[in-house]
Amino acid sequence: MRSIWKGSIAFGLVNVPVKVYTATEDHDIRFHQVHAKDGGRIKYDRVCQVCGKSIQYSDIDKAYVSPDGDQVVLTDADFAKLPAAEKHEIPVLEFVPSEQIDPVLFDKSYYLEPDSSTPKAYQLLAATLERIDKTALVHFTLRQKTRLAALRVREGVLVLQTLLWPDEVRAVDFPSLDDAPAPRPQELKMAETLVESMSGDFDPSEYTDEYQIELQKVLDEAIASGTGKVESAEATEPAEAPDAEVVDLVAALQRSLEASGRREADEKPAPKKAAKKSAAKKAAPRKTASKSTASKTAARKGA
């Protein structure tokens, strides 16, 4: 990995030099646009609407248009004057209970590596965060923008997660929920039973992106054939519609519970000798992202 930023965490009077790395990456297959007739790559031209000429990227500045239509152009020199452009410090503002940070506020994640020959301060901060049930709120300036961020520990490494500002989260206002009836006790009980039957420990390695896997197969077949085209797969039969009499939530939940029970019975392995226990566990089928699709679909259709 290549660091994208260098600075230091200000933890009271303790200074923790760090390097910042992007913690996540997109595994989606990338496409570009081509001319359908001859396969030629499509390019975009930056054309000025005033003079009609193509403009080089180095000659482009940023402009802001006010609600009244007034336009203001800012150059790189203007942005360089802003305080955020010179800030290479991550000050810890306060420590807050972790459960008070709504997950909807989380934006991007970054790994922090100690940037010192003696990373004792880094290890001290990481150990402290692991021992307390709180998250450090910090200020983080990256690419001329100041962000609020949460600082925590993951597998012994400090992780910085930028947070959205409060006004960047849209307010919820759905009139359709205003007069919605509250669930009945029987419905709640059955829903909780269904949840319990589908509960387990979260292991992200058990899930795979089936769409990307199948898409890669299509691309590999196209490359192998040399034509660039692959026959479309046969259309699948539409899912059978629920019975007409299954119209209320209780009935839908009951069907979901029954389906969940049948699935667990089918997936339950036959008893084996103790000597083969580890081998059987190793051969267990890998789960996919469609782990509970059948149950969720039945519940939604019935609702």
Automatic annotation (TrEMBL):
- Record's subunit section: Homodimer. Interacts with LigD.
* Name this polypeptide is given: Non-homologous end joining protein Ku
| Species whose genome carries this gene | Nocardia neocaledoniensis
One GO BP on record is: DNA recombination
HAMAP family for the chain: Prokaryotic_Ku (MF_01875)
Domain (Ku) spans 52-180
The UniProt annotation puts the region (Disordered) at 258-303
Q: Where is the composition biased (Basic and acidic residues)?
A: 260-270
